[in-house]
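hey all, quick one before standup. I had two proteins in the batch that finished overnight and I want to keep them in one place so we stop losing track of which output belongs to which input. First protein below, input sequence then structure tokens straight from the run.
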Amino acid sequence: MPTNTEKPLFIPIILGTARQGRESEHAARVVFEQTKKRAKVETELIDVRNLPMRLDDAGEQMKDPAFSATIERCDGLIIVTPEYNHGYPGLLKHALDMNLKEYIHKAVGICGVSAGPMGGARVIENLLPVMRELGLVAIFEDVNFGHVGKLFDEQGKLLDQNYIRRVDKFLDELIWMSRVLRHGRENIAPV
């Protein structure tokens, strides 16, 4: 049980596509709004569209100090990503690769978005080995935003409120895991 003096968790959300007309932005905003409602949790929405990335280099060679500081500070991470041709956007991978040690022993939850019925299940499956290689600890809850074109109105308002319950269950697990891993990072020396 958290104490009243425990510092808030910091759990940013990464929107993993820069495409024009991206419907995953609506899903990211729903997750962001639900995360902001959580007591003792701070968050921010990171849009890969706004990260300074060069296309003629990769990895830590193009590390952005502000993005790295955000990832270093975070206790957990949420990735909201569309599924493109059964995979994740290349720009998301390019952005994730800018950091390495900053991810180690931190929790991550993934929300998949797709136009079809699978709700990004394949993109989540494809990202799990990447998360593990980066040193992140993936939670077992996911949120799958399927048929995304029918989930939101023209203004981006969620039409199916059942997703709020799904996001809340996802956040419960991510917050718990983030708290446990922060305790471990702060109190248990690596061997």
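OK second protein, same deal, sequence then tokens:
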Amino acid sequence: MTIKEFAELCGCNPQTLRYYDREGLLKPERVDRFSGYRHYAGEQALDFVRIRDLRKAGFSIGEIKELLDKDSESVCEAVDKKIKEIEALLERARAVRMSYAGDIRDMKKRIEEFTKQIEEAMRAYSPEEEFGVSAEKYEKIMNGLAEMLRALPEKAEEFAADIPEGADVDFNGMEEVDFSDKKADPMYADVLERHGWNRMKEVFEDIADLEDGAGYMICVDTVEKKGMGFSNTLLALLLERNEGKKLRLELYTEVSKDGQNHLLLRKRR
């Protein structure tokens, strides 16, 4: 029978059958080599029913492909398993519904604590020797940063959504994290390296001008441990130099293992 006739038999539209054909779920019995018309056998309606019902039950295309050649008992077992998965998902959704408001309040509080740490670190930091930045310019940087930080608690839902399920986020311990694996991230390519410098102002101009719309990772190994003041000043200066550009910047700092300062600039592929 033609695709139109088969669609009427199955109670669907021809577009659905064409989609199933493209996905390899339900191929026509034959395709006319000259006209390209699809022709189906009546017994293929049983395969259509199986596909339709499994789709209704929430099975993916890949899962359905694996079940098409299985017997009815195996299909029913798979449906029972899917029911348990959906029930578990519903339980997690109910738990989220109960805790959502509290989770957002907690995240806002943690963000406020984190931003306070940043502001305190910035106020206690003097960038003149490291960056060659005057007190007046640094005050401008801090004012701009403070304005940005004040907006962060209102984005608590975005922060919460980005945290993987089960993750334990500790803002207080961020500077203790080992970021060495970032230097081998295959999503980024090395574009510049500088070694053996003494102060960031010696190499800042090498990385200052960035490409609009690009994503960059900056890895800095320093002889002495640098705090938030150093990190945020570097980021603020880069954003100031590239004002108006859409950039994604990631900065990772570690204590050097060889007694020298190193800088690695990586660009997202």
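Flagging for whoever picks this up: The chain has three domains: 3-69, 99-169, 176-268. Confidence is low (pLDDT under 50) at residues 163-177.
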